[in-house]
Amino acid sequence: MSALLVGYALLLATMVMLALFVTLGKNLVHSVLGLALLLCATAILFVVLRAPFLAGIQVMLYAGGVVTLMLFAIMLTRRGAGVEIVNQHIPGRRLPAALMCVGLFGLLARAIHQTSNWPAMRSGPLPTTRDLGLSLFIDHALAFEVLGILLLAATIGAIVVARKRDHGEPEAQRRYGRTTLPREGKS
Amino acid sequence: MNLPQILYLACGLFCIGLYGALTRRNVIGLLLGVEIMSNAVNVLLLGFSRFTGQVAAQAFAVFVMALTVAEVVVGLALVILLYRTLRHTDVDEANHLRS
Questions:
Q1: A116 compared with B57, residue with greater pLDDT
Q2: Cα distance between residue B49 and residue B55, in whole Å
Q3: Were B24 and a residue from A24, A56, A134, B29 both cysteine, which residue would form a disulfide, CB within 3.0 to 4.6 Å?
Q4: CA angle, A29 as apex, A154 and B91 as ends, to 5°?
Q5: Interchain CB contact of A125 with B (< 8 Å)
Q6: Closest by Cα among A96, A89, A75, A83 to A26
């Protein structure tokens, strides 16, 4: 039993350390990879909390999809080969933000500390994946459909926003002035 | 493992993510902070689901995950548009999206 407790403590400490690494790291690519590790550690915590289906979704959707998308965005917004990717903090804002975050954590921790009679570890039947599916498609069916519409709208919006709208002007020409190919009609 | 430990962990992760979202100079770093915050909320929901046996908390966690993914997709599209317009991804100097 005590080995289990040590394992839990290690998992929680790993998650906090990884979150600090993602937030305070200097290299943006390292931060994103640290986020992938943090999300995998969260998936392990989900398994401990008896939600294996959500752990699977977490690994597939976040560690697989979101992190890849973020790496793509970093690579697309580089200034060129050899240029350091800036990932600094805004200097004048570090102290107020740190005070605010520590204050918020102190407030929440005080509220948790003062609360008594927490529910004990439940010994009865826990919700299974089958229960989750029934809940999603029967009790929350409307919300689920609305969520599908929202995802569709977000996808279309992202495509519209990120689309190139240069009206036929090639990007090389805009960047370097003239392209090597002269247009027709000019000499 | 008991419920207050999960709550402390979720609050700690949320505050760390909030610090990142408030202080990062790069938009992608800011999105990483938001990602940690929504992850903390999921930990909280699943902790309550484990200790009270409510399946609705897990359904909520599914919704939170889907909403976060939608937010990240739109956010990264905006990052790419920002880079194409201003040639950098600095939060403080991004006052307009059309140059």
A1: B57
A2: 6
A3: B29
A4: 60
A5: yes
A6: A89
> For residue range A134-177, what is the model confidence (pLDDT) as tens digits?
999 999 999 999 999 999 999 999 999 888 765 555 555 555 55
Contact yes or no for B72/A66 (Cβ under 8 A): yes
Asked if residue A31 lies in contact with residue A21, where contact means CB atoms within 8 angstroms, the answer is: yes
In sequence order, which residues have a C-beta less than 8 Å from that of residue A127 and are 6 or more positions away?
A: A135, B49, B53, B54, B55, B58
The whole-number pLDDT of residue A170 equals 53
User: Residues 28 to 87 of A: which have CB under 8 A from any B CB?
Assistant: 28, 31-32, 35, 38-39, 42, 45-46, 48-51, 53-54, 57-58, 61-62, 65-66, 69-70, 72-74, 76-77, 79, 85-87
The whole-number pLDDT of residue A161 equals 87
Query: DSSP character for A178?
Result: S
Q: Which residue in A101, A143, A158 is closest to B73 by CB distance?
A: A158
ipTM of the complex: 0.91
Residue of A2, A14, A44, A49 best to disrupt the B interface, most CBs of B under 10 A: A49
Residue A187: count of CB within 10 angstroms of its CB = 5
Q: What pTM, to 2 d.p., does this model score?
A: 0.85
* Residues 6 or more apart in contact with residue A39 via CB below 8 angstroms: A58, A59, A62, A63, A66, A67, B39
